[in-house]
Amino acid sequence: QVQLQESGPGLVKPSETLSLTCTVSGASVSSGNFYWSWIRQPAGEGLEWIGRIHTSGTTNYNPSLKSRVTISADMSKNHLSLKLTSVTAADTAVYYCARETSNCFDSWGQGTLVTVSS
Amino acid sequence: EIVMTQSPATLSVSPGERVTLSCRASQSISSNLAWYQQKPGQAPGLLIFGASTRATGIPARFSGSGSGTEFTLTISSLQSEDFAVYYCQQYDTWLMYTFGQGTKLEIK
After folding, report:
1. What does the mean pLDDT of chain B come to?
2. What whole-number distance in Å separates Cα of residue A55 and Cα of residue A36?
3. From the candidates B88, B97, B99, which should be mutated to test the interface with A, based on the most A CB atoms within 10 A?
4. Strand order of the sheet with strand B70-75?
5. Shortest CA distance to A77 belongs to which of A18, A1, A5, A15?
6. If you average pLDDT over residues B33-47, what whole number do you get?
7. Dihedrals φ, ψ of A4, to 5°?
8. Residue B94 has what pLDDT?
9. B102 contacts chain A (CB < 8 A)
10. Which of B30, B38, B59, B74 has the CB geometry, 3.0–4.6 Å to B44, for a possible disulfide?
11. CA atoms within 13 A on the CB side of A41
């Protein structure tokens, strides 16, 4: 059974870089034909797909965030990373990592709240 | 970008009732649609993919239908644990997944 756990700072200052990690167990981030995605959800709002990385290392990003986002995978630690630069209050949200199977998200982490504030 | 529109935003229903939620795509997405259920404080969970295929472990009271631009999620007899927010997601364009804004099922 795949398990995902997000971690990282809960508070980030405006204009700085948001950095999160997703630790994966029960599966490898570097093998199999899977994509691993980051998705976010502002409080009381809907879901926004941020981007994904394939086990081969190929990445795809939401065009609206592409200029600020980097998703990477660390095979040695079996975890994913999300970096979002130049954050503003609009980036305040719960951030989820999820495994993608056949273009759907079948396993999710519990999410981590990131607040952008000075 | 394909815009997904869900209706209604909120639905007040009683346990045991049958309920139908709607999701409309701004352009045809064939059957490339998934439904998720999200309870307060939890991550979403996959219910339906391919517009009508239940995910592993999902009870038969959940069913999905539709293709093209119009989709529905039906819960045949609402149980107490079904009161939650439901989201649809399109994956016709894999370069950009989008979700609907959600429908909240609340107890009447």
Report:
1. 95
2. 8
3. B97
4. B4-7, B19-25, B70-75, B62-67
5. A5
6. 97
7. -125, 140
8. 66
9. yes
10. B38
11. 23
